[in-house]
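Dear colleague,

Thank you for sharing your sequence with our group. We've completed the structure prediction you requested, and as agreed, I am returning the results in plain text so they can be pasted directly into your records. Please verify that the sequence below matches your submission; if there's any discrepancy, let me know and we will rerun it promptly.
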Amino acid sequence: MKVKTILVSQPEPKIENSPYFDLSERQKVKIDFRPFIHVEGVPSKEIRQQKIDLGKFTAIILTSRNAVDHFFRVADEMRFKVPDSMKYFCQSEAVAYYLQKYVVYRKRKIYVGKRTFSELSPLIKKYKDETFLLPAADKLKAEVPEVLNGLGVNWKEAVFYKTVISDLSDLENVTYDILVFFSPSGIDSLFHNFPDFEQKDTRIAVFGNTTIKAVEAKGLRVDIAAPTPETPSMTMALKKYITLVNKK
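Please find the predicted structure tokens below.
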């Protein structure tokens, strides 16, 4: 069956040259964006109940832009002035670049990993005498505590924000040819909103092995998967599939 409509379970890209817009134009398909999950900040009162004193930490581990936003939000709510001496360990360049929203980059001690958390570990190990705070979501990848415990550093996790299922009730009678998912949480949201969901002719596109497992655990069929050596991005995987089926 030909593809005419796609729903991507993420917010609409803010950049004008997003590959999704190019895909839509070139393949003549309608692409809608709708976050199936969203992030809500944990109040500073609840963070105090986690026995977190920001003044006791000399380094912050930042795994995402959400972690950056909510660390500085909490610091502001607690009236804590982040010292210039604070060290920032960012999982990727994207996170480090985003940090500039809050600090003067050239005047701070910022250490940047390549992409994965394990790739950040040599930098953390180099400064193992620091006291690390990990502002995290309520759902933390198992790799993170494993790596930090393996390094033997002094660290503490605190839940600064939570992943919450979005209300999708307005989509109840709307159908799409392809649904695109990037996390198991997106699949959880789908079935929370639509417990009786049946795949039928709907194609499901997924990014990452954990998302594939979540889809299959629900008895659904994975039609499009990324990343692969041939299609390292979701838009490339979608383009390949649409080019194939729309030619028929």
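Summary note from our side: Residues 5-36+167-245 form a domain with the Rossmann fold fold (CATH 3.40.50.10090).

Kind regards,
the structure core
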